[in-house]
Each structure stands twice: as structure tokens, then as C-alpha cells.
Amino acid sequence: MSKLKTSFFCQSCGAQSPRWTGKCNSCGEWNTIVEEVIQLEQKGSLKASFGDRKPVVPVRISEISFNSDARINTYDQELNRVLGGGLVPGSLTLIGGEPGIGKSTLMLQVALKCADRKILYISGEESEQQIRMRAERLGIGNENCYILTETNMQAIYKHLEELLPGIIIADSIQTMQTDLIESSAGSVSQIKECAAEMQKYSKITNTPVFLIGHITKDGSLAGPKILEHMVDTVLQFEGDRNYGYRILRSLKNRFGSTSELGIYEMNDGGLREVSNPSEILLSQRDEAVSGIAIAAMVEGQRPMLIETQALVSSAVYGTPQRSATGFDVRRLNMLLAVLEKRSGFKLGHKDVFFNIAGGIRVEDPAIDLAVVAAVLSSNQDSPIDSKTCFAAEVGLSGEIRPINRVEQRISEADKLGFENIFISRYNTKGLDNKKFGITVIPVAKIEEVYRKLF
Length: 454
Ligand code: TYD
Ligand code: MG
Hints:
Layout: E1 4-10, E2 16-17, E3 33-39, H1 46-50, H2 77-83, E4 92-97, H3 103-113, E5 119-123, H4 128-138, E6 145-148, H5 153-163, E7 167-171, H6 188-205, E8 209-214, H7 226-230, E9 233-238, E10 245-253, E11 261-267, E12 270-273, H8 278-281, E13 292-299, E14 302-314, E15 322-325, H9 329-341, E16 350-356, H10 368-380, E17 388-391, E18 393-394, E19 400-401, H11 406-415, E20 420-424, E21 439-443, H12 446-453
Parallel strand pairs: 4-8, 4-9, 5-6, 5-7, 7-8, 13-17, 15-16, 17-20, 20-21
Antiparallel strand pairs: 1-2, 1-3, 9-10, 10-11, 11-12, 13-14, 14-16, 18-19
The protein binds thymidine-5'-diphosphate and magnesium ion.
């Protein structure tokens, strides 16, 4: 898309005039002047710099050459995993997140670590000195990392032509601005156009591009939704700012699964990759506390143990309150209804608060049994043994349902030194218990779990 320039033409004689008039000055006809769009000369645009793409013709899918191991290593294992095994050449990746969450830090860190190719970090937010200071803080040197503090797309192309970087990072897309559109930087049309130009550049030259984008208060990427359609991958960087942990989540990925998580810890020297997430998601406690249950989860390909916490107390107001952090509150309500109706636990007049440690969000249904156990433990005010964990879904009739990848979960729990794991009875078929040091406890009903726990 290029800048649309309009002009006024007489439909009778074709004379051009800069503004609308009732009568054509040239031929004298009335009411013949109509506004028309004229194309602006594509000076300084991508097309002028890089020419058009080769003409495309239909080809057989089997004849298209591809290289399955063409992924680029970003030297950041968490990022590689979230991207689906590395960066795909010619891909456009959008990284969103609230201000101050660490997007620039993450990307600068990647830029500094990838020493095997030229990296251009374009910043419209910080000065060269500020970026240098940050790099010093991160403590990584890289001769191949170039910094460009420019926001004008046409000027950026000139540098791209000379430098020919292997990876481009644009921080942030909201500060970029192209001459082809008149509106100010950060406006919807500017963001769209700049991203479209970046996309064109990336596809023509096969260079991977990262775009950093801010997020609005309501959590959506600022600027148009259209950005999400345009790019190949949308990553979200999130986390509680008061909490040291940051989670990189993939919302859309044309080249991999969207269920992968990357976990980092923000400290003085930048972001540290957390390769064993259970280490941070399980709080270290000396004394047993009621209302805590550990769930054996699988996020993407990676098993991890997560601590769930529930607090059940007598309702202060007429209507009991239910709230959940990191978990769907409707699912919590459903589980409470199952406990009430199928298993006879009186929770109807209790406030229930539920929380998942570490600020992470869980959608895996295998967490159900841990939620139920945490609620029962808090209601009962008796703690669950800290070496016990859970991995099963709970159905509407109070049955304990099987879940996928049960072996992976059991072996992870085993590795982390747990002694008991509750799973569904229907998950035990073909399971070789002797392989694990951990005791596998198969259950079919909530009452059974209750009897075995308390
Ligand atoms: P930044 O990457 O500037 O956030 P964004 O680009 O998403 O707006 O992150 C800034 C925050 O990170 C700031 O609060 C300080 C913190 N930080 C550290 O704790 N350690 C570090 O080594 C760095 C570079 C930043
Ligand atoms: Mg920033």
C-alpha cells in the first residue's frame, strides 16, 4: 500500500483542479468535478529499493524446495522452544507486553547472544548510550550487533541495504513511521503500513524480523488487531512486575505449537532462562500448610510441577465470593458444584479463593484434581503431605478422568523427589509402575481421594 493522494477531475473535459468547485473552470460545465485517488510516485519505498518480487506461477507442492533444518538458533533456549525450535528465516515475529516488563531487555539479550550473524537492533525508544548502558548491564559483548536509533522507515531501508543484517529487531513498531502515510507515528495506519513494509522486506530478503509492540491497558496489542494477522508469530511477554518471573507465551505460531512456554527470571544481570520451572513454581516451605496441593502439569512439551493454593472460609456476605488467579473461575465454580452435589461437601456458604503460584496461567485439565484437593484441604484445615502430587481431570459426576501423557508427568514428579502421585484409575492401563520410585495411587472417585488424603 502506498500513500493515497487525491485530486479533483472534471468528468467532462478531464481538467485537473486542486479543490472541488461547482463549475469547471476549463470547460464551464456545472457539477462535473469529482474527487479521485491518484497514486503517489513510489519514491524511497521498498519497491524502489529492492525491486519487485519475481513473477509467481503455480507450482506443484512436491516441487517446492525446502530445508527443514533451516531454523536459526537464537542462543536462547526458552525463546527457541517458544518459536517452535528456532527462528524461521523470513518470518515476522511480534513480541507484545506491558511497558517495563522486559521486552527490550529480552531482545537486546538475543541480539547480543547471536554472535554468528549480523544483527540490527533498531530503537525508536532509547538512545544509543542508553542501549549501551543496558548492554553493559547484561554483560555480553558482540561485535556483530549494530544499533540504529532511527524511526523513519525510508531511512531504515537505506541502512538495511548497506548493512544487510541477518536478523532485524524493531523496538517498537509504534515508534516507526513511514513517509508513505501522512498520519503521525503510532496511529493505526502508520503501524499497519510500517509492519507491512517490514513484512515485505523480510519476505523478499528472507531475513527474520522481530517487532516489539506495546500492549494497551486491557491487555490487547496496541494498534490494530490486523498486526496479529499479518505476522507469522505473536509472542506475549508477561508476568507480575513485583514477581521476578517472566513468561513468554506464544499466542499464534505458524511454525510451531502455541502451547509452549518460556520462563525467565529477571535479575540484576538481565533475564535468566529458567530451564527447570518446577524449581520456581514450588515454594519452599518447612511446615505443612493446609490448602496447598501440587499438580503435575504438561505445558507444551515440558512437564512441570505447579503449586495450587486454595482458601476456603465462611462467607462474610450473603453471596459467597469465588475468585481465581491463573485459573478459569468458571471451571472452579464447576468443580465446587461437583464437590457439593456429587460428594456432599458443603461449600455453598463458603468463600473460595484460588491461586496458582508463580503468576502462571493454566489451561491443562489435569490440574482439576489438585484444585479439588487444595479446596478440600483448606476446608478441612488439614495439610496434604508435601511429597504428594496430583494429575487427573474431574468430571461432572465426580469421577476422576484420565489425562494425556501421564507417564511423562509421573516421571517428572519422580525426578523431583515426590513420593505419591494420584492419577485416574483409567490411566493405569499399560502403565509400568515398577519403572518409577514414586507410588502411583489410582483413584476413580473424589471420595476415594478424600479417604486416602485425610
Ligand atoms: P525493559 O526491557 O525496558 O521493558 P520494556 O521494553 O518491556 O518496556 O525492562 C525494564 C525493566 O527491567 C526495568 O524495570 C528494570 C528491569 N531490568 C532488570 O531488572 N535487570 C536488568 O538487567 C535490566 C536490563 C532491566
Ligand atoms: Mg522497551
